[in-house]
Amino acid sequence: MAQPAWQDPVPLSPDTAPVPEYGSGSLADLLPTLVAGQEVPGFGAAIPELTPADRNCVFLIDGLGWEQIKGHPDEAPFLHSLLPTSRGGTGRPITAGFPSTTATSLASVGTGLAPGEHGLPGYTVRDPGTGALMNQLRWQPWTEPRVWQPYPTVFQLADAAGVHTAQVSAPDFERTPLTRVALSGGSFLGRLSGEDRMDTAAQRLAAGDRSLVYTYYSEVDGKGHRFGVDSDAWRGQLMYVDGLARRLAEQLPPRSALYITADHGMIDVPFDERSRIDFDEDWELSAGVALLGGEGRARHVYAVPGAQADVLAVWREVLGEQFWVASRDEAIAAGWFGPRIDERVHGRIGDVIAAAHDDVIITASVNEPNESAMAGVHGSLTPVEQLVPLLEVRS
């Protein structure tokens, strides 16, 4: 039924946002399920559709969501052919978690915890101890990693239980704080080329009777951010990574399972004023705001003390038809960050959280010039960003 012209628009309710499948079908549930099948103590099979294997390999392709694979059968014939195998042969995706962004997702993968527990709930979030924004991808300003994220990784616990554990990635990632808090444990093997990573991952998988190997490729995401997922450059990367996945699958040793997944999907947002709302030029949105965190499609908004209610009301009035706008308590109650929120994480979450529903972003042209210039973006709760594959090849 059409809304009468005289009636004010009704903002989107936070309760209507699709919540990630924490506990049964999210990225945080993958490694716990795999190591439970390898008899590592303390873990259960959170994703019930998966069948145990002695040797497990996870290939995470940064930025390659479920809908991108579905929409590009010609560029990714191998990955597309595996869609029916996803999530234990159900042909269904899993979810990333909120926000659907790299630092948050990699921490969920490696720790087996939702964002509310591991404590990386965004691209940039406020450090309650200093009051400054903390970039959790670049780890700026420096913060002691094990204070920020104190839980052991699944890799560390599997390694301690006798599982042959390895990560194969770009050499530059070996000593980054994000790797330390999210992916450390066992051996790290730095390899520059994608082909070398695939070959090394297969070798390390064969090196143990029980093995857990993780490997990673980033440039699908990189080309998407720069040129968009509707670009020839992005399609070229998709074709390349499709070949990498096939190369790894063809080398699996006996008793192995390969799982191909991603940390998030991606969406192109037009370069126009309707689609890109500039916080730095908008006096309404900036009134009462002390810090703007997160990223364009998943904003953490930190209000000046005493202004939280006003900021929430204004953001909801201005953006409520295009974004799910929630207070911290509303977002937590809705389960956006998972079923549990650690006390140390509570203050990292914004006083107001704005998650994009439409094809729009909130830029910050002065304070975030590089991020504001990105063609392809992600972070929110929409299917194109949230749904990621869990493609499977077994030997």
What value does the average pLDDT take? 96
Uncertain ranges: none
Report the sheet with the most strands, covering strand number, pairing sense and barrel closure. Answer: 6 strands, mixed
> Could you give the order of strands across the largest sheet?
6-5-7-1-8-18
Would you mind describing this structure in some detail?
The protein is an alpha/beta fold and 395 residues long. Helix 9 (177-182) links the parallel strand 5 and strand 6. Helix 10 (194-205) runs parallel beside helix 12. The strands form 6 sheets. The protein has a 6-stranded mixed beta sheet with strand order 6-5-7-1-8-18, sandwiched between helices. A 4-stranded antiparallel beta sheet has the order 11-12-14-13. Strands 2-17 form a two-stranded antiparallel ribbon. It has 18 helices and 18 strands. The chain has helices at residues 30-37, 66-70, 77-81, 86-89, 102-111, 115-118, 145-148, 154-160, 177-182, 194-205, 219-227, 232-249, 283-286, 308-319, 328-334, 343-346, 369-372, 383-386, and strands spanning 55-61, 94-95, 124-126, 133-135, 164-169, 187-190, 211-217, 256-261, 267-268, 276-278, 289-295, 298-303, 323-327, 352-356, 361-363, 376-377, 387-388, 391-394.
